[in-house]
Design brief:
single chain; 137 residues; mainly alpha; 7 helices; globular
Length: 137
C-alpha cells in the first residue's frame, strides 16, 4: 500500500469533505442552515485551492449553488457563500480548455451577483463578494 504524503492526505481529506458537504446540501435543500453552512465551507475550501475547486466541480456543484442562490434569495449568508464559491471557481477552477463552460458560468454568475447586490445593498459581505464576482465575470 502506497503511503500518502502530507499533501496527498490533505488533498484526499479535502476531496472527501467536499463530497460530504455537497451530499448534505443535495439531500437537505430545504434545510437553510445546512445550505448556509455548506456553501460557507465550500467557499473556504475553494479559496486559493485548485484541488478544492476541482473537487467541487467533480461534484457538479454549479447547478446546486444556482438553485440555492435562487431559492434563498433573502439569506445573506447563503448569498455570500454561494457568490464566493462561484468567484473561486471562475478565478481558479477552469483551465484553458474549459472556456465555453467558464463563459456560461461567468454569465450566470454576473446575473446572480447583480441580484444579490440589489437585495443586500447594505450587507458588507454580500457587497464585497458580489463586486469581486463581477470583476471576474
Amino acid at each position: 500500500i502506497m503511503a500518502l504524503t502530507d499533501e496527498g492526505q490533505a488533498s484526499l481529506l479535502e476531496h472527501n469533505a467536499v463530497q460530504v458537504a455537497v451530499a448534505a446540501m443535495r439531500d437537505h435543500p430545504d434545510q437553510e442552515t445546512i445550505c448556509d453552512t455548506g456553501l460557507g465551507f465550500m467557499q473556504i475550501v475553494t479559496s486559493g485551492s485548485v484541488e478544492g475547486c476541482g473537487a467541487a466541480l467533480a461534484q457538479d456543484i454549479i447547478p446546486l449553488v444556482s438553485d440555492m442562490l435562487t431559492h434563498y434569495v433573502h439569506n445573506s449568508g447563503i448569498q455570500e457563500g454561494g457568490l464566493g464559491l462561484l468567484r473561486n471557481l471562475i478565478d481558479r477552477g477552469y483551465g484553458p480548455n474549459d472556456q465555453a463552460l467558464r463563459a456560461t458560468l461567468q454569465r450566470d454568475a454576473y446575473e446572480m451577483a447583480m441580484n444579490a447586490l440589489r437585495v443586500f445593498p447594505d450587507h458588507e459581505g454580500v457587497q464585497e463578494v458580489g463586486l469581486q464576482l463581477l470583476q471576474v465575470s
